[in-house]
Amino acid sequence: MQKPSPTLLTFGDLAYQTFSFSHDHMPTLPSTIARYGRAAAALAGVLLLAGCDKINFWRMDGHQSTIVVDGPVAREQLDLFIITCWVSLVIFIVVGAVLAYATFKFRARSEADEHAAPPEQSHGNPLIELSLIVASVLALVVIAIPTVKGIWNTYDVPEAERKDAYEVTATGYQWWFKFEYKSETAMSDSKGGKTPLITANELVVPAGRAIRIHLRTYDVIHSFWVPKLGGKVDMIPNRANILYLKADKPGYFWGQCAEYCGDSHAVMRFRVIALDKKEFAEWLEQQAQLARTVAPAIAATAPRGQVAALRKFRENEAGITAAYDTEPLKAWRAKQDPEKNEDAALIAQGREVFKKNSCINCHTVRGHDGGGVTGPDLTHFGSRTTLAGGLLENDATQLRRWIHDPLAVKPGNKMHFGFVDKDGKSTMAGYRKTEGTGKGWTPNITLTADDEVALVAYLHSLK
Ligand code: HEC
Ligand SMILES: [Cu+2]
Fold it and tell me: Residue 24 gets which letter from DSSP?
């Protein structure tokens, strides 16, 4: 048997000597297991990759893809990424080829080679060194030109489109987004009061038009990112940042907070819905209205069709409906109309529950009770496809799950714990409030199953 090469690591050398005897005989059990194990691992790998097709691994056009994009800002960012990839690929091939060539060409061909003295060492080769410097500088220049151009182009709405840009203000809260349309007026009461239009978690914008988003934060640093349209830009306390976005055509886009901001950062999401001119105008008109009131025709003791359906709310914990999954924009449009089979009595009951518990302290429902601003505006909550910062689909199952126990859905959220001042006292109690010592939380809002069902009916009637 040939002596193991002294250039091998000592550890490998030892292992070789210890176990090499088994190779001279029949395959042993461990080696058989190892062989089948490797085959199984390879097969599992292939199966896993095949499974990736479900999340569009090969097509790379998932909800938050930056490879299949739908707007000029994201496209410019993608182009830059591709250029960087090509430059890196060229460097990889050149360096890899030189390395492979040297390894092959200068390998030890015989036992004598292995023990030969190292060749005479030389120092420096001006030609090679200079050309390496020039090549690196060139590679950086190739990347730098489009980078600077991209920063210039995407920092703000291009001059030519500035006058026509649609402006909105987005404010990050732990862990949801508020959207303010300061140029639009909405009714604040039935006596003709006016207020800017405010909504949450779903940013509805005109398609094909530059959007200028003013980025603000209520608490910590957040970051605003809609992968298919562009971003990301941070929302920083005491700093006015802007972001330019544009959707090529009507669509439904996924957004995400991209700066770690606490417990529920990973589930701090939102949506951007781009509509054509006419549909956008219709949406604005509807949102400007006061909350919809469904007049109770009969007493609240009538049989409730919705109760039975809601009982099985545990069955579909993280579920989203097939209609929303495949055609989100269509599902969003369907949400704009009042639901069929509304139970007016139940809705009226829900409105009472909303008023009796401290929901109204944190949520605004223009025209109804409720003027709180620490939680999302719920005036037209029923017309949104998502809830809890874009985390859940806004259907009866998920809404009840949220109202039942917000903490089980979203760790640390401010609806569950309310707002605590620096002495540890609750300033605005949510589902739980402190004892005043800063230690221990006690239940504050307790809802019966009936209350929950009524709240769901009420909130979904707010179109
Ligand atoms: C202490 C303030 C507070 C109270 C009280 C409160 N909420 Fe909330 N609510 C919030 C906050 C904050 C959020 C956002 C949570 C998140 O997504 O992280 C929220 C979110 C919601 C949402 C989801 C809105 C959306 O667009 O995503 C609904 C629905 C809701 N609350 C209903 C209620 C109901 C019903 C009650 C009363 C039983 C209630 N809230 C009581 C603060 C409060
Ligand atoms: Cu955040």
Answer: G
